[in-house]
Amino acid sequence: MRQSIMTYGFFSFIGSGFVKEIRAIKGTSDILPPQSYLWQYVERVCRSLCENAGYLEIRTPIFEETALFERSIGETTEVVQKQMYTFTTPGGEQITLRPEMTAPTMRAYLENSLHKKGAFRKFYYSGPSFRYERPQAGRSRQFHQFGAEAIGSKDPLLDAETIILAWNIAEQCRVPGLSLHLNSIGCAECRPKYRESITAEVERCLPLLCEDCQRRANRNLFRVLDCKKETCRTITAKLPPIETSLCLPCKDHFEKVKEIISRHINNWKPDPHLVRGLDYYTNTVYELTAKPLGAQDSIGGGGRYDYLIHDLGGPEIPAVGFALGLDRIILALSKTEAQCAATLQPRITVFLATVSQNERDFACNLLIRLRTSGIAADMDFEAKSLKAQLRQADKSKVDYVAVIGQEEVQNSFVKLKDLASGTEERISVDALTARISQLMADKRA
Ligand code: HAM
Fold first, then answer.
1. Is 133 a pocket residue for ligand 1 (Cβ < 6 Å)?
2. 4 C-alpha vs ligand 1 centroid, how far in Å?
């Protein structure tokens, strides 16, 4: 028996009691049309530019063994300490929803022995990632990354290639107010030197730093440099930049990267205190920002990570890459190009309108025939009057309406109306596909 359902705000009254409506989890969101078509557009730009540069798609699972992220991102990072969605499966395994996609890509590279079949590989990926952060505009708990990783070369030209690729994607998506912040955090040789040069000052300021930094200072000084709290930032901004401690090869590497990107990117600046929030980086690190986004303005970031594959149990293979935050790119676009999404949504070419309910079977057969021939076609499924069907066709901006009445069914034809020109013609059902294809080709020409 059908139960009556009445809705009062978040609650529905079903049969004998109130039932709380189930809503999306905090920090996640639904992407509805036409916005979903803006997403498809951005994803198409990302894919096409990456494939144009020789990157191939890799798809890895959404969850991984927790140890993968602890070992790669680093146990003292915010991500590992506070933001991971970790759970124990009924089988007793420790699983984490991926908070990022670089570590899974490297795990897949090793697990599939790709390094044994020619170490140099270029991958791109796209998909949701999960971090338990405080949700706000541009920061969510499920967000979407598009990234690219080039594995198997130390060449600074490759650092530059990935930076320029990320920049070109953002530019081609027309992200407004773009800028690039660039730094080098050196290698395992120069970092102890830097640590030594700032330890005394950090220790002196320790009581003024936040609780997290006080806790982390001993274990990983770089995490203090990455703290986003204003009080800590004021202190760390006065520390000498890491560039002063770079060894000669790291200095040369960084100079080469800067030289190349200067030729291709007009709005970049050195950011001597940029270290990034993940432990695996070495040498080049960078972030792309979009001005209209305010507090959460980083639309992407990346860098080199020459030790990660080794730290995951593989050979010493260097790598470099980036990930763009698609949610933030869309947010930046929505602020300037809100109408753009609607124009990207696909449209139906021909709408079959029936004079009465009696012609619906005939219309349905014709609908399937048109769709099988590749023509986007639709009809009414809500028993609407002819007038309401025509209104619906007009609202959905279809190109043609085929009107079907009793006479049309008896003689196997339709009245085809071109909504742009207002012209109408009588076409036999057998000739309809060819006629619509020809009309569309004429319009495109
Ligand atoms: P990441 O900087 O942590 O780097 O994330 C990359 C981008 O993902 C950020 O710039 C931001 O746009 C987006 N993002 C991160 N967290 C959130 C969030 N809670 N809500 C919305 N967007 C967010 C990485 O993940 C590295 N794996 C990048 C990389 C690839 N490095 C080398 N290769």
1. yes
2. 46
Helix runs in 180-295, H state only: 190-205, 211-217, 221-225, 230-236, 248-264
Q: Find tokens 């997403």 and name the residue.
A: 39
* Ligand 1 nearest-atom number relative to CA 277: 3
Q: Measured from the CB, is residue 318 less than 6 Å from ligand 1?
A: no
Pocket test for ligand 1, best of 145, 163, 280, 284 (most atoms within 8 A of CB): 145
Assess contact for 245 and 193: CB atoms under 8 A: yes
Cα 439 to ligand 1 centroid, rounded to whole Å = 47
The reply to whether ligand 1 has any atom less than 6 angstroms from the CB of 99 is: no
Q: Is the CB of 28 under 6 A from ligand 1?
A: no
CA distance 305 to 317: 9
> 6-59: per-residue pLDDT in tens?
555 555 555 557 799 999 999 999 999 989 999 999 999 999 999 999 999 999
pTM: 0.92
Chain-centroid distance, C-alpha 6: 38
Model confidence over 305-322: pLDDT tens digits?
A: 999 999 999 999 999 999
Q: Which of 222, 247, 215, 251 is nearest to 236 (CA)?
A: 222
Closest-CA residue to 57 (of 114, 121, 111): 121
Any atom of ligand 1 within 6 Å of the Cβ of 156: no
Distance (angstroms) between ligand 1 centre and the Cα of 23 equals 26
Of ligand 1's listed atoms, the one at least distance from the Cα of 149 is 33
In angstroms, the CA 348 to CA 224 distance is: 55
Query: CA torsion angle for 356, 361, 364, 369 (degrees, to 10)?
Result: -130
- Cβ count within 10 A of residue 251: 15
The interaxial angle of helices 326-336 and 35-52, nearest 10 deg, is 120
Distance of CA 254 to the CA centre of its chain: 28
Angle 248-264/156-172 helices, nearest 10 degrees? 30
Separation CA 303–CA 242 (nearest Å) = 16
pLDDT at 345: 87
